[in-house]
Write a structure and sequence with these properties.
Elements (H helix, E strand, L loop, with lengths): L18 H23 L4 H11 L10 H7 L4 H15 L4 H9 L2 H10 L24 H21 L5 H21 L5 H20 L1 H7 L6
Helix pairs in contact: 1-9, 3-8, 4-5, 4-7, 5-7, 7-8, 7-9, 8-9
Length: about 230
């Protein structure tokens, strides 16, 4: 088959799906929907408070040095992060561009849900400390949505293309470590409740699983560069 054809960017449309990923998307979406309904019914959870205080009571040592960077990356630096990710995909694996763009559309869920739920952020009388005051609404964590999506897109679109097979689990472990660090950061600085963090991760994972389950987006993107 000749290379460089239009199918490099736009393969023939198909409704074919990877069923296991579609099931994952549905299950995680139900988790996110359940969290959202519960938070709308009762914005304050005692469990949230306990977990928040526990995390804030830990000395995170050198890990805490990364918190300002991740706070910036998921906030003011978010647009730069997404642009860099799209450019890297465009330069290094153009056939994955549609997957990368579709995945980043999932960030729109934050704009919809944050205004729908309108949950107050933690206040000083509820938790140990508040060192960041990003705004009035707390649910879900936009930092977790945007960073989870961008880190996963790098792994999906570039990791599967260039990493050897044995390194794929290591790549996903790195993504998980980044997401976990961001989650700890958002709780540690007092910007979010733990359930906000869980919701942000759930929304991002559900959308990523849905988009990747659609073979029109994912098959060419995930094809390795080697036999």
């Amino acid at each position: 088959m000749k290379s460089g054809s239009s199918r490099t960017f736009f393969p023939p449309w198909t409704w074919a799906v990877h069923r296991p990923l579609l099931v994952v998307a549905g299950v995680v979406a139900l988790v996110a929907a359940g969290l959202t309904a519960t938070v709308i019914a009762n914005p304050y959870w005692q469990l949230d408070d306990s977990v928040d205080r526990s995390i804030q009571g830990i000395n995170w040592g050198p890990l805490a040095l990364t918190f300002p960077f991740f706070s910036w990356l998921g906030g003011p630096g978010g647009i730069y992060m997404q642009v860099v990710v799209i450019l890297l995909v465009l330069l290094l694996n153009r056939r994955a561009l549609m997957l990368a763009l579709a995945a980043h559309v999932g960030g729109l869920s934050y704009l919809i849900i944050v205004n729908l739920v309108n949950r107050p952020r933690p206040i000083a009388s509820q938790i140990v400390r508040i060192t960041e005051h990003p705004g009035s609404t707390s649910y879900p964590s936009g930092h977790l949505i945007f960073i989870t999506i961008s880190a996963s897109v790098l792994m999906l679109c570039l990791g599967y293309r260039y990493l050897p097979r044995w390194a794929i689990p290591i790549g996903w472990a790195a993504v998980a470590a980044i997401v976990l660090t961001v989650g700890i950061d958002r709780i540690y600085v007092g910007a979010h409740w733990p359930s906000d963090v869980l919701a942000g991760i759930s929304l991002a994972v559900a959308w990523l699983a849905l988009v990747t389950s659609l073979r029109w987006f994912s098959d060419r993107a995930l094809e390795p560069s080697r036999p």
